[in-house]
């Protein structure tokens, strides 16, 4: 059964709604986000003695204005929101979703932009990673001007030939070590206008592999399985 999240996202305001595990009821003017999972949505995370665990990706979806100003987070997965990584051995995993982190611009006590156990993400909706397709609802307080919807997706230990686990910290393809991301997060975006009905977010680049900056890198040819985490992200305005 698809996991569904209800988000009441107040434009230019902080979101405070809670996660809803119920059928969504859409009203005129609502925005529906439908994430169709790709063939690599589920990733085998190594545990020990050859055992693995099926993991979905970490991801965030947020809203900006057309100048690039961050407005509000629609959804972010719980591990990022609460620093609840399994066996992270003290690694804050700044390489997981660095573009979203830098867009928020909230600096924590250790100088990183990731929420902590002591100060978890509270200005939006967070929840467990769904294991199947996902539907999200947004209700804006004011939707008279265009908005930009962005999303960032990443798997841990998703290594390939260009982003190997043995890359060193000083290497350009370093991604957090043997428990890091491997392939960096992939970023999707598009502009939504009030008079539109449907748009699909498009891949615009990837994040910093080591999480050291909030830039968008356009060399998607270096990504392999990461490009198939998501099949499509459909944005629909309910008329």
Question: How would you describe what is shown here?
Answer:
The chain has one domain. 5% of the residues lie in helices and 31% in strands. The chain contains two helices and 13 strands, in the order ββββββααβββββββ. The protein has a six-stranded mixed sheet with strand order 7-6-5-9-10-12. A hairpin with a 5-residue loop joins strand 3 and strand 4. The chain is globular and about 50 Å long. The two termini are 26 Å apart. About 6% of the residues have low confidence.
Q: Would you kindly provide a brief summary of this structure?
A:
The chain is mostly beta strands.
Task: Write the topology of this structure.
Elements: E1 3-7, E2 31-37, E3 43-46, E4 52-55, E5 58-64, E6 70-77, H1 78-82, H2 98-104, E7 126-127, E8 134-138, E9 147-154, E10 186-192, E11 198-200, E12 202-206, E13 230-237
Parallel strand pairs: 1-8, 6-7
Antiparallel strand pairs: 2-8, 2-13, 3-4, 5-6, 5-9, 9-10, 10-12, 11-13
């Amino acid at each position: 059964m698809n996991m569904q999240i209800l988000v009441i996202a107040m434009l230019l305001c902080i979101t405070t709604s809670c996660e809803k595990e119920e059928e969504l009821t859409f009203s005129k003017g609502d925005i529906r986000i439908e994430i169709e999972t790709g063939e690599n949505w589920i990733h085998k995370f190594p545990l020990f003695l050859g055992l693995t665990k099926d993991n979905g990706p970490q991801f965030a979806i947020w809203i900006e204005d057309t100048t690039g100003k961050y407005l509000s987070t629609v959804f972010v997965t719980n591990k990022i929101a609460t620093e609840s990584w399994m066996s992270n051995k003290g690694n804050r995993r700044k390489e997981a979703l660095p573009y979203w982190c830098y867009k928020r611009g909230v600096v924590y006590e250790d100088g990183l932009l990731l929420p902590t156990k002591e100060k978890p993400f509270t200005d939006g909706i967070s929840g467990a990673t769904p294991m199947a397709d996902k539907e999200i609802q947004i209700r804006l307080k004011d939707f008279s001007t265009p908005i930009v919807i962005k999303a960032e997706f990443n798997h841990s230990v998703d290594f390939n030939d260009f982003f190997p686990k043995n890359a060193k910290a000083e290497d350009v393809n370093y991604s957090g070590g043997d428990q890091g991301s491997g392939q960096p997060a992939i970023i999707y975006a598009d502009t939504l206008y009030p008079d539109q009905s449907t748009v699909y977010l498009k891949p615009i680049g990837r994040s910093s592999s080591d999480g050291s900056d909030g830039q968008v890198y356009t060399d998607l040819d270096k990504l392999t399985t990461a490009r198939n985490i998501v099949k499509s992200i459909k944005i629909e305005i309910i008329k």
